[in-house]
Each structure stands twice: as structure tokens, then as C-alpha cells.
Amino acid sequence: MSFLTVAFAALFYAATVLLVVGLARRIYIYWKTPAPLKIPTTPAPVTTGGVVLRMFREVVFFESLFKGSKWTWLFGWVFHMALFAVLFRHLRYFQEPVWGIVEWTGPLIKYLAFAMLIGLLGLLARRYFVDRVRYISAPSDYLMLLLLLGIGISGALTTFVTHTDVVAVKSFFRHLMTFNFQTMPNLPGDPLMVAHLGMVALLMIIFPISKLLHAPGVFFSPTRNQVDNPREKRHIVDWARKLEQ
Amino acid sequence: MAKAEFEIPELKEYPEIPPIQPGAMAHSKPYVAKVDFQEALGFPGELIDDWHDKAIEAMGDLLGKYRSLQVFLDSCVKCGSCTDKCHYYLGTSDPKNMPVARQDLLRKVYRRHFTFAGKYFPKLVGATDLTEEVLEDWYNYFHQCSQCRRCSVFCPYGIDTAEISMAAREIMDRIGLGQKYCNEIIGKVFRIGNNLGLPGPALEDTLEGLEEDVMDETGVEVKYPLDKKGADILLVTPSADFFAEPHVDGLIGYGKVFHEAGVNWTLSSKASEAANFGMFIGSYENMRKISLRIREAALELGVKRIVFGECGHAWRVAYSFLNTLAGPWDFLDQNYPIPQHVCEFTYDLIKKDEGKPEEEKVLKFDKSENDDMVVTFHDSCNVARASRMGDFPGGQFVIPREIIKTVCNNFADMDPDTVYEKTFCCGGGGGLLTDELMELRVKGAKPRMEALKNVIEEDGVTHMAMICAICKAQFTKILPYYGRGMDMIVSLHQLVSNAIVLTGQQTEDDEEETEAEAE
Ligand code: HEM
Ligand code: SF4
Ligand code: SF4
Fold first, then answer.
1. Which member of A37, A133, A210 has the closest CB to residue B80?
2. Residue B264 above 70 pLDDT?
3. How far apart are CA B518 and CA B85, in angstroms?
4. Residue nearest (by alpha carbon) to ligand 2 atom 2
5. Is A3-242 in CATH node 3.40.1010.10?
6. Are the C-beta atoms of A98 and A106 separated by less than 8 Å?
């Protein structure tokens, strides 16, 4: 096995562990931290079903963002939806056999890579050109977009221009997933592919320690996930109950 | 026009988002609380020596107690959606008044001490130590947030800067850096029973005066009882209702409605204050202690229901928190909402009267009494975005408007981007209603003043009605800066009071028969 293959095998194992453990820990913290008061942003749903619907609209349509800023919504929504579609298409690199739906939609989704890049470029432009957004941006905010752009561009190039040996790449990941090191093939040394995979591993590593925590965060946001029923049902958490004794 | 040492914002026909002017409001800060007032609330008297370590410790404590704080500090992606939503940013152009930038004042210290990236790569993620300058920014800019929650409406994760401001104020209180206005007032509530420090005998006098006024005006004996044991309803109302204009006209209105409804009600000298400034300073303990007065009063007087008067943040604490803080309310009549808003009370009667012949109605109105006005309605932030009325989402918008339309012939709403859930704060909420913050208050009122100007010009609006004691006090004070009269501001129940025809009231046609029946 080449050095590159060993290094990337180690990198992906490490990145996966950090991502999974990091996210699990974060989610556990959110889960366990009490919300002592009812603070939904009203008007809010008065039933649990209503809250599920509200959350669905937030996560799928970015409803509040739409109210707030049409341009950010447009670029942001296009970026995310294209990202999820492209990630879905990536299943074909990990599955054996590949689901029919992944197979059929693949050729179409392929082109969504461009939508994703346009979305990211729009967000980057807004960050740089709108004085208010520039003011609130730290270096990491630009770097995050550049990292995703880097992943998107290198991925698109391997798909549309250089045509890397994806069969070998897939075989590499299948072996990693099944912990089968005997017959593990070498990872192709194509610099674009190496860059793509390297950046993906970096993204996985920083996910649980960066603002990407917005993905689990949105589900735990008390202003969005609470039912508006404080008069009907007494809401009290443990540390607050202790004050009553 | 009132005199000012600062520039009064120019009102535009179409709202504009100003370019940022860093430092524009860096000088704005409220007076610091004195030793006595701090200690009365259980906080250190003045800034302690090891304030840095204690502040970080307090932050850690709050992070473990409030999911909102933990999730909000982690989740912001700096999308910028909230940046142009705060009235204080729109009115002052100071970028630190953009909600996300305000949060960042706390977030950068959070990152430095509580996150991997901030500990090892502070420059990269904009993390900083808690220096004296940062503390000064905290004090100044967390007292330029009225906790109105407008930002949270537009944030994709619902990040509510109010929660961050409350936490920051609690941290500052715990290191001995409290705000004079809020903390003094809370002290007065504990010692005397209300924000204004009005003792029981003074209240009694005032209420007797009101009874006489109503008698002179209508010839009907309407009672404004205080500490009446065995009453069914305890009315808890902001103490400004006892004497300030136009608040008191609202109180007169509640009394008339209760009188016509034939309910047995009372005020309490112990709970002579609906306001709860414990919320503004983010102190669960103080908020709870203030709320418990209402429980005690309700138990002592033996009432069955609690009704709240017109006050925005008080209604938030009442509607959203009272059950948590001072419940369970199992000794009250469960057939009514606990607590109930006075608007819900009035609206219920109006609803039940619908379709009945005029002489059978409980509340009879002569709408023409309000014909000298064209009214618009200012949604108060805490009612709009932090509570509800009625049994359906958005009742807090519908019910007050329905009441106004029932008692008034001329009503016009302001620009849809400035009402309902998108309503703009009056500029004086969240514990900022103090004179040394006048510049902030005037500038923060700009978006509302703009919307008001437009309905004045387009619909001939003459009066703005509202249901919040702070809004009323703020607008009556700042309207003159914008060249308008303070008498534009009316209490919602003042409109009710104007139009209501009391049973037995001397009007053109004599109604003695109905009076006899009602006795
Ligand atoms: C439940 C899943 C998710 C939801 C609901 C969500 C939602 C959002 C929303 C509403 C925004 C703000 C608008 C914008 O700037 O685009 C945002 C920003 C962002 N999201 Fe997500 N997201 C999710 C998952 C992810 C994932 C998995 C990634 C990355 C791999 C990601 C990367 C980003 C980035 C980088 C930004 C900042 C964009 C900028 O700098 O302007 N998101 N997300
Ligand atoms: S809560 Fe209101 S005052 Fe505070 S930052 Fe948000 S919009 Fe501004
Ligand atoms: S809208 Fe929310 S996520 Fe976007 S910058 Fe403001 S606080 Fe952050």
C-alpha cells in the first residue's frame, strides 16, 4: 500500500471518529441543558404537531431566513439543497449494491454541483460586499465558504473534467468501511482527488467545533421547538424546582 | 420640539438601512447601581476584584442552566439576516447594535473560554479575552437592547438576542456591575410593592379620586376597590396606571368594564405592580420573588381569578412564566385562563354580546364618542412576540384590534412590516426607560415614528393606541422630539372607556328601566 493510501485511511478513520463523537457530545449537551422558561417566538404553534410543522418549514424552506433576507435566502437555500442532493448522490461511492433511486437520479443531480457553487459564491459575495455582513465576519467565516467552494470545485472537476478512477476510490472506501485491509487497493494519486478528499476530511473534523453546529442547533432552539401552552401546562425544570423547596 | 444635544433622526417615506458607523453609540450607557440596591437583590455592591474569573464562572453556570444560551452561542452562522432588524441599529447606525454583533460581544468571550477553536485559534474565529474594554462594551451595548425579540423572528435558528442580553446582565450583576434604573425599581417592589414606590394609603387616595371622576363624568358609581377580601378577581396592573397619563384612563376603562360585567374585583396593595423587572436583568430568582407577591396576594384575598392590566413585558411574565414561577394555580377557578389579560376579558364579553339585541348586551358602546380620532395600534413587542391572547396563535394581534374596531369607527393599521410579529419596539423597553438613555430612546423610536408618520399622512391617523405601560411612557416622552404632541398616545381601554355606555349613565335617552333590572 502506498503512503498516501495509509495516510488517507488513517485520516478518514480519525475524521469519522471526531465527527461522530464530537457531534454526539454536542447533541448530548444540548439535550441535557434545561430550558427553564417557555420562550417560543410567538405566534407559535399550540400543539406538538404544529411545532413539528414549524420545524419542518425552518429546516426545509428556511422560513425565517426568507422573512429576513431574500438574497441570503436564495443563495443559502440553493447551496444547501444542492449540497444535500450532491451528498445523496455520493451514496453511490459507498453502497454495494447501489440503491436504484441513487442510480437513476445521479446523472441529473450531477449538475446541481453548479447550483451549489453559485450559491456559495453568492454567499461569499454578500459576506464581502455588504458592509454589515462584513463587519460581523471573522476569518473563519470566509474560510468556511472557501473550504466548501474548494470541495465543490475539486469535486466538479473530477466529475466533469479529469475523470478520476472512481472505481478505485470507491473500492478504497468500501474496504475502509468493512475494515478489510488485506485487499485494499491504492488510492489514485490524482491531485484533484487528493485535494477533494483532504478537504472533506477537514470539513468533517471541524464540523463539531465550528458554526456548522447550526445543523443540530436548529432542532434544539427553544424559540422554535417549544409549544405555546404555558397557561395550560406548568413547565418547570429541576434546578428551578429546587428553588421551591 | 424638545431640545436635544443629539441629532434627531430624519424620517423617510421608505425605510432605509443605514451604512455602519462604528462607535456611533459607544458613549451611551445607563448609570451604575449603587451598593445598597445591588445588595438588596443579593448581588455584590460594586465591581469585585476578581471580576474576570467570576464572570467566566457565571457564564459557565448560565450555560448549564439555559439551553437557549448554549444553543444560540454555538449556532449563529453570521448569515446577516438579523443585521438590519434592530430598531437601535436602524436608528443609530452603530454596528454593535446589530443583533448578531451584540451577541458576538458575549460570544467572543464564550469562544475563548469554552470552545476548542477559541482556546487554540482565537484570531481565526474572532475569540477574545474578557478585558476591561470588553466589559465596558458589555455594559454599554447590552443596555442598548430592549429585549424586543424582533431579531429572533428573522433568524434561521430563532436566535433571540434578548436571551443573550439577559444572560449578560445577569453575569454583570453577579460581578457587581448592575444597572441603577432596573435594580432600584426591583428594590422598591420588594420594599413597597410597586415600581413607583406608591404606598397603600396613596393608592387608596388615588382610587377614591378615580371613583369621584367617573361619578362626575357619568353619574354612575363605579368602584375601584383595593384589598377587598373575598373578591372574585384580582386585577394586577402596572403601577403607572394609578397616575400617569394616558395610563390612568386605561385603568378607568378596566373598572367600567368590570362594573358592567357585574364582577366582584379588587386591586391589591401587596401586588400593586404587574411589571417584573427581574426579567430585564435576566435573574430567574428575582423574577420569581417578584411573581410570588402575586401568589401571596391572591391567596390572602381569596380570589378565584387573576386579570392583568395593559403592560407588555408584564404580560410576557404573566402569560409565559407565571405558571412556572409561582404556580401551580390549582386554587383558582380553572374555567378561566390563568392569568387572563384584560383585553381577553373585554373581548370575551364583546363576543358573547354578538348578535344580541342592544338592550341585552352586557357592554353597550356609543362608538361616536371616539369619532374625533382616527386610531392606529402599536403592537408591543412582548405581547406580539413573547406571549399570546385568546386560544389561537396570533390572538394577541386580533383581539386588541377587534376591541378597537368595536369601540371606534376609524381604524387604520401601519405598514405591515412594522406591526404584528414584525412590530418595532417603542425604543424604551427592556429596562431602558431612563433619562440618561434619552438619545438611545429617541433614535431607537425612529422606525416606529416613520411608520406612524406614514399613516398620519396617508390615513389621517390622529392617535396611536397601545397596551403597554412602558410604550405609553416612552412615546409620550419622545413624541415631542419628533415634533408631535404626547396626547396622540391613548390606552386601549381608554377608547373602551370613552365609548362604553354605563348602565344608568345619563345619556340623551333615559335608561332607568335597564338600570332597575341590573340592580
Ligand atoms: C439540518 C441541516 C441544516 C440546516 C437546516 C441548515 C440551515 C442553514 C441556514 C438557514 C443557513 C443560513 C443561510 C446561509 O447563509 O446559507 C446556513 C448557513 C450555512 N450552512 Fe447550513 N444548514 C444545515 C446543514 C448544513 C451542513 C451539513 C453544512 C455543511 C457541510 C452547512 C453549511 C453551512 C454554511 C457553511 C453556512 C454559512 C454560509 C455563509 O457563510 O454565508 N449547513 N445553514
Ligand atoms: S432583542 Fe430587539 S433590541 Fe435586542 S438586539 Fe434584538 S432587535 Fe435589537
Ligand atoms: S440571523 Fe441568526 S444566524 Fe444569522 S447572523 Fe443573525 S443571529 Fe446569526
1. A133
2. yes
3. 52
4. B148
5. no
6. no
